[in-house]
Amino acid sequence: MDRAGTALNDAFRLLQAPPTPADGPPRPARRLRTDHESVEEDLLKLVLTVVELLRQLIERQALRRVDAGDLTDDQEEELGATLMALHDALSDLCAEHGYTLQDLNLDLGPLGPLLPRAD
Fold this sequence. Notes:
- By secondary structure, the protein is mainly alpha-helical.
- The chain is built from 3 helices and no strands.
- Helix 2 packs antiparallel against helix 3.
- The protein starts with a helix and ends in a 23-residue tail after the last helix.
- The model has no long low-confidence stretch (mean pLDDT 77).
């Protein structure tokens, strides 16, 4: 828990605005685009990113269970078909809105990308 608190503290520290130079006027803050269309698109991209992250986590957990022998052959088949259907549905949603699955990978700055690279 200490490590998580330290990491969260570091993340907030990185988000703080840098000090302004003493010899000049302060620079204006970077503005967010908050028009109706951009907010909807950003929210859609965020939701698709969360779904892709969950899909990848479930896929990894499924592979662990298959490797451990916890599933029957029928369960493995059903799980594989379900994960493939979810991947296809997510790919279709991305294509419908002009994204690729690679577009969903958020850059977290010094922490690196949110999603692991596709194998």
